[in-house]
Structure formats: C-alpha cells, structure tokens
Design goal:
The protein has 495 residues and is mostly helical. The chain has helices spanning 14-25, 29-32, 34-41, 44-71, 78-85, 88-121, 147-163, 167-195, 199-206, 229-246, 263-292, 304-307, 317-326, 329-362, 380-396, 399-427, 442-460, 465-485, and strands at 130-133, 144-146, 213-214, 225-226.
Length: 495
C-alpha cells in the first residue's frame, strides 16, 4: 500500500492526552536540577520560589495557549498557530529551530539521562566506558563514543520504531509509563514524608529561608558569594533554566491535533490538567527533598547528609533522598523510576514532534518526502528524520550545553506564540473560539512579561549568554534558509 494512502486516526482521548502531557513533562529533570538551583540561589525559600514561579509561568502559558489550540486543532500544533497568527516565515523559524535543537535536543538529552541511570543497574553503561576514540581532530579535541551514547541511540531508534507502527502503539506505552511514574512520584512523596523526615535537615533548611548565596559548582574552587537584589534576580533567572526545562513539553499534545477525539475541548483540558498535576508534584517533591536532606553541603563530604542537596552525587538529589529513606536499595529503586520516567518522556516527545515536520512539509517548507503518512496513518518518514538528527546530537556529546540552547529558543517562541493571541483577536475578531484564554488579557500579558525577562537574563548572564546568543543566531540563520528554499511557497495557501 503506498504511504500516501494512510490517514490520521482520531484515537487520542482526554485520558490519553493528559498522559502524553504529564509523561512528556516528567523526564529526568525533577530528579536532578534542584541541586543546581540550590547552588544558584542558596536557600530553601528561594529554591521553592524558583519552582513556584516556574509553575505559575507554565500554567499561565498553558491556559493562554489553549485558545490557539482550540482555534486550530491541526497536526503541527505550534507551527500552525504561528503560521495563522503571523506568516509562514515565522512559522518556519519555529519549525527550523524545533528540528535542529528544541525537540531533537530534548530527545537526545533525555536519552542520555536514561542511559546514565541504566548505569546504576548495569555499570557497563558509563561515560567512562569508551567504545571508540579517534586521535586529535581539532586541536586537542578527539571524538569519543561511549556505551552511554550507544544506549541512548538504541533507545531513540527503538521508540521511533514503535511509534512508526501507529499512534495506538505509542499512546498505549505512554499511558502505561505515565500512569506508573505518576504513582511512583506520589509514593516518593508519601514515603519521604512518612519515613524520610530529618530533624537536623529541617532545622538547617528552615531556620533561615531567605539569605541568598551563590555556591560554586562541583569541581570549582571558589567561595560562596552573597547575592544582592539584582544578583538574586539574575540567579533566579539562571536557576529557572533547569526548572523550566523540567516543566516543558506541555505543548507537545498540540502537534497531534488531528489525532485527538474532540480536539477543541480535549487539547485545552489536557494541557491545563496535565500542567497542574505536574506542577503540584514538582513542588511537593522539592518539599520532600528539604525535609530529608540539608540544602547546604560540601562537595568533599563522604556521607549523603554531608553532601546535602547542593552536592548530591552527580546532582542526583532524588537518588540521595531514596538512599536516605531506603538505604542502598534506594539507589536501585530510584534508577528504575528514572529509567521509566525518561523512557516515557521520550516516547511522548518523539510521538509528537514529527507531526510538526509533517505540517511544514505539507506547506512546502521542509523536505517534501516528510509530507507522507504510512499505512498506519503516522508520518513515519518525519519520525525517522527526527530520529537521525537526535542520534547525531547524542554523538556530538554536547547534550549538556543543549539545555541553554533549548530553553532560550523554547521560551522565545512561547512568547511569540502567546502574543499571537492578541494578534488574532485583532485580525480575526469573529473567528470561532471554542475556548477563550482564561484571564485575558492580564494572564497572557503576565506570561509574556515574565518569560521575556527570563530570556533577557539568559542573554546577559555570564554563564548562559554564550549559548543563548548562539541559540538566537540559530533562529536567525533560518531566515536566509527560508528565502533560499521556501520563498516560492510563501504565498501559497496551506496544504
């Protein structure tokens, strides 16, 4: 049967959609990034503020973004919203960045996280286990291929193959894994509250909530630096790179608009319900961290409590808490949980992203061969193109640096998309709107302002400026690419 004969199947229900939202959001970040956040802001109160502020921004974005999702419940999601609110150039710049770094960068980073935590169970999977190494290529740089990269690539290829068989196969895996990790997170919270309460940690963490101090990263020799008000604002912005990364991908369900049952209502509800559930869980998990371990620690300490949240081994705060509660078996339990979590996150992200490239190709703005569905009604070629590029990013070894590229670009396009609500209210005032942004215009404006401040901080802060500016240049590079390869399609109606 020719690939063109396939068609999208409306198989995603509200429950499926909520599982895709929560499953895509909960990856490895919540188990790791609180260590870096605690070093950036240096107090329990500001740690919780970072997560609360992240939750407010994420929820504000989701309930505002829902207006566009209900207006245009099409395959392609945010790409389609930008095309309708602005033009094909703006939409292309988003799709270009989505393919080069946003979606594929997250897939690569989550895949590597899966492989690293597999190493807790099977030590052969380690970044130190180099399977292949070249001689110096550029200066002192030599390419290395480790067992961690191998497993990350195998994971991405395997999940892609499953999703190429049809949306029902992908959603079944997503439902099982998302339900499992939601229950597991709830058990972590309850177990931590019941068994992990540490009187010394509580005293250390809550006797002074608001003294902001920046602590050095592991391996950096420097004294803690008290933060001024302006320094604290910058530190919060930098710290939110990790928390926003952990809370991202809530929009991915929009990419599958034509595969959703009753999409005008389901898209909005799933994003609101999913982000609310994840935000609540994230805040509660961080409270458990603070009740179990002292925030301030020493990188040279030999005990879990001595290293604290700040210097948990390899930043694995959740693993440290699990070991505190359950002993050595806790590390194994947490490794299994994070493996399930990262597998489920990558399944949801891989399932969703390929739909955007399909929509771009249908508009004539991407490789034409990607504008095809296979017999199972999924864009298999787009899935495999996404797979190939994500695997190359795994090989690059730059997945750690990708975080700043990813988050600057992600938030930048969220801001542009939310502004699109105001544009469409003016240009298409009579267009059907099954859902109108809650709190309009105040809540969307709050989102735009807070998210814009975050982007500005990333552009000017010393630790993030280089990668954020490169991310901006990457977006800008899409302009000549568009006019070189897509200009002849720019005035054509969408396919």
């Amino acid at each position: 049967m020719p690939e063109q004969q396939g068609h999208f199947q409306r198989a995603i229900t509200l429950f499926d959609a909520v599982m895709i939202v929560t499953g895509s959001m909960i990856g490895s970040g919540i188990f790791i990034v609180s260590a870096d956040i605690s070093r950036q802001v240096g107090s329990s109160g500001w740690l919780l503020v970072v997560w609360l502020l992240t939750g407010v921004i994420t929820l504000a974005g989701a309930v505002s973004y829902g207006e566009l999702a209900s207006m245009f419940p099409k395959v392609g999601g945010q790409y389609v919203y930008l095309r309708e609110a602005y033009n094909k150039l703006v939409a292309f710049l988003y799709g270009w960045t989505l393919f080069l770094v946003i979606q594929t960068g997250v897939i690569a980073a989550v895949g590597v996280a899966f492989a690293k935590f597999t190493g807790v169970l099977i030590p052969w999977f380690s970044v130190k286990n180099v399977l292949f190494k070249t001689g110096p290529l550029v200066g002192d740089y030599a390419f290395e291929f480790s067992s961690v990269q191998l497993l990350a690539i195998l994971l991405i290829v395997g999940i892609t193959a499953i999703n190429a068989r049809g949306v029902r196969a992908g959603k079944l895996i997503q439902n099982v894994l998302s339900s499992t990790k939601l229950v597991a997170l709830a058990l972590l919270i309850l177990g931590g509250l019941a068994l992990g309460l540490n009187a010394e940690a509580v005293q250390a963490n809550f006797h002074d909530l608001w003294t902001a101090v920046r602590y050095p990263a592991p391996g950096v020799t420097a004294a803690p630096l008290p933060l001024s008000l302006s320094g604290l604002v910058v530190a919060i912005g930098m710290a939110m790179t990790g928390s926003l990364f952990s809370s991202d991908s809530w929009n991915n369900i929009g990419f599958a608009g034509e595969e959703i049952v009753n999409p005008e209502r389901t898209l909005v509800r799933s994003m609101a319900i999913g982000t609310a559930i994840v935000t609540a869980l994230y805040i509660l998990v961080n409270v458990v961290y603070l009740l179990a371990l002292p925030l301030v620690g020493s990188p040279d300490a030999t005990t879990i409590a001595g290293r604290g949240i700040q210097y948990a081994t390899d930043d694995r705060v959740a693993t440290a808490v699990a070991e505190h509660v359950l002993g050595p078996v806790g590390a194994v339990v947490m490794a299994v949980l994070i493996m399930l979590s990262t597998f489920g996150a990558n399944n949801g992200i891989i399932l969703s992203g390929a739909r955007a490239y399909y929509a771009m190709a249908k508009d004539g703005l991407f490789f034409p061969g990607l504008a095809r569905l296979n017999a199972a009604g999924v864009p298999a070629r787009a899935l495999w193109a996404q797979c190939l590029w994500a695997c190359l990013l795994c090989l690059s070894g730059s997945y750690g640096q990708l975080l700043n590229y990813v988050m600057f670009s992600v938030i930048l396009f969220y801001v542009i998309t939310i502004i699109g609500i105001f544009v469409l209210r003016r240009t298409r005032p009579d267009a059907p709107r099954p859902y109108r942004a809650w709190g309009y215009p105040v809540l969307p404006i709050i989102y735009v302002v807070l998210a814009s401040i975050f982007c500005i901080i990333l552009l000017v802060a010393e630790d993030t400026a280089l990668f954020s500016r490169r991310g901006l240049m990457l977006v800008a590079l899409g302009v000549p690419v568009f006019f070189l390869f897509g200009k002849r399609f720019a005035n054509n109606p969408a396919a």
